[in-house]
Specification:
Elements lengths: L7 E6 L3 H11 L6 E7 L14 E2 L2 H5 L6 E4 L5 H11 L3 E5 L6 H9 L8 E4 L6 H11 L6 E8 L6 H4 L15 H4 L2 H11 L4 E8 L8 E9 L5 E7 L7 E7 L2 E6 L2 E7 L3 H7 L9 E6 L9 H14 L10 H17 L3 E2 L4 H14 L21
Parallel strand pairs: 1-2, 1-4, 2-3, 4-5, 5-6, 7-10
Antiparallel strand pairs: 7-11, 8-9, 8-15, 9-10, 11-12, 12-13, 13-14
This protein binds nicotinamide-adenine-dinucleotide.
Nicotinamide-adenine-dinucleotide (NAD) binds next to helix 1.
Length: 388
Amino acid sequence: MKTTNKVVRLGIIGVGSMGIHHARMVAAGKIPGCQLSALADSDPTRLHEFPTLPHFNDSQSLIHSGQIDALLIATPHYSHTSIGISALQAGLHVLVEKPLSVHKADCERLIAAHTNKKQIFAAMFNQRSDPAYQKIRHLVQSGQLGRIQRIHWTVTDWFRTQAYYDSGGWRATWAGEGGGVLLNQCVHNLDLFQWIFGLPESVRALCRIGHHHNIEVEDEVTALFSFAQGATAVLATSTGEAPGVNRLEIAGDLGRLCLEDNRLTLIRNEIPSSLHSRQSREAYETPPTWKIDIPLPGHRGEQHAAILKNFCNAILHREPLLSPAAEGIHSVELINAMLLSSFQDQTIHLPLSSSRYERFLKKLIASSKKKKTIRRYQGRAGNYLVQC
Ligand SMILES: NC(=O)c1ccc[n+]([C@@H]2O[C@H](COP(=O)([O-])OP(=O)(O)OC[C@H]3O[C@@H](n4cnc5c(N)ncnc54)[C@H](O)[C@@H]3O)[C@@H](O)[C@H]2O)c1
């Protein structure tokens, strides 16, 4: 395993819209203990911004260059597995962009390659740094809402234009990306979902393919999850709705918690609703409540910088990981189950058979069409988009 004393020598593979954002952040000194040491991209034009850094055109040359202790993988989704396995086998610490892989079987292969637990292996689930989600997780898991009855998450603020989908040959194709809004955008929310509530026991979904855009993957989804303890959850997401909304509502025996526009509100029952239902002599009386606007420190946390700092601190100082890579399999399993449910018009029970989904995905890949139009475009922050 390669680790220097005081500094993590970081290499980045994939210097596109996300990779360049990470590179600039590290080069600007925003990640203490982290030194941008080498870059790799199969497209040499992506490497011009840092001409003095060692740079490579393929992953193997970077991984075996001896120039880096840790690798950040920011390439398209399918390559996360093969590059991640090579890097782990070469003894590097690895931080992989979301999603961990495209499908559950690849997640299993990648996680299995992490045999030396002294190597730090993390995933870029930057929304875990958001104080609002950390607070919600604490409230739910410490039982302060009582038994959870219902979760409703409408997360339709992932609007994307056709120009976005036309900006890369891999985007929004089964062969190149492996999915649409679920795997690319909503994977953040599904990671938080399983991080807060755990995995449901069954999934039923309607995934609309190319509903708002000229693409071959899903861009609008409504799903129903059912939990072993009796709770249900509804998730709605879209890249075609504007203005979108991000509203998470959780109803429990002890009250209702709602997050919207970075405002977290708890309406707390003074007695549990189930107890009140049994004891009250009135037909329509609801339990008395009190309401609190829960203060949140800062705005949405440090996001990508938080994960990178934590990754480096884990290497240098054994800080516990906020987003261990092994947990990235859960959002992928949910996404795979939702797509399978929709295509096969059936409820999928978890755990999902990883080989069943891999066989199913291979058929979609076989039907995938090569894109005719690929246009780079000038976004707000250069010729790329940054989302978080
Ligand atoms: N965490 C976030 O907020 C966030 C935001 C955007 C993208 N991402 C993730 O980052 C990853 C990259 O997405 P992007 O939007 O930057 O894509 P992109 O197409 O803009 O960039 C990908 C880059 O990888 C290079 N590349 C492709 N295959 C390669 C290979 N085998 N070896 C070396 N280089 C290779 C391409 O030339 C390109 O420069 C994806 O996993 C995506 O989901 C995460």
